[in-house]
Input
Amino acid sequence: MTWLDRFPALGTEQLSALRRFIDGAFRAFTREHGQAMEQLFEPLRQFLLASERLLTQTPWPVVVGVIAVVAWMASRNWKIVLGAILSLLVIGWLGMWDDTMKTISMIFVSTVVALVVGLPIGILMSRWDRMQRIVNPALDVMQTMPSFVYLIPVVMLLGIGRVPGLIAVVIYAVAPVIRFTNLGIRLVDKDLLEAADAFGSSAWQKMRQVQLPLALPTIMAGINQTIMLALSMVVIASMIGVQGLGQPVLKAISNQYFTMGILNGMAIVAIAIIFDRVSQAYGKRLQKHLEVVHG
Output
């Protein structure tokens, strides 16, 4: 009756052999294709470096002014604009300006990459149910996998640096864009689609002129969630060389620097609030605009 007390499992030797086989196969793939993978992601590295140089080398009043203008154009809310300006001024006054700009550049590039990858997948899922059945389980795994696990394969493939961290951030944060794009397109009123068909619209015209504009508020909600997830992953990605506010937080944890950790953590919170309020306000403005146009 010992099998009732002890769960039947692989022996230690068999389990070790299985792990060695999988790890060896992955290392062999890395040795053979690692250089090609680095060359493949070189344009992404250049894009990230250009974005980082732009934000860190531009005079700070210009950066604050541009962010304020973008916040105003998106939200049309002076409270949000004033909050963004004050937050950036306090961050700079406390000596965290360069790290904040590096973090914003990482969030910007990772969000752009997530949109480039996620929007087409979400559109395909909305058009083909089989595609949705295939992709949904993968998204479930991506959203439930512990965030630290994403660092292991990218480090083995590409080593330590900005690009591996960026890829880990994108993988962790891309799921909401895919899900919300699929959901937003599927929720478009079928009567409007029938009217578009009656006017002789092609599938591309119907997608571009009817479905995507009406799904845009929902897609913006997905973008909002992607930005929030990217910000939460930045601190973890600092473990593999991603520069920005995450590295001082990691240093504070390692050395028990309470003040450093709190200040840099609050800076991340301030950036998250700015992005969240601006994107939410823009989504609400889109929703009201579409209600007026199609109401």
User: Anything to note?
Assistant: The radius of gyration is 23 Å. The first helix runs from residue 2 to 5. The mean pLDDT is 84. DSSP finds 14 helices and no strands in the chain.
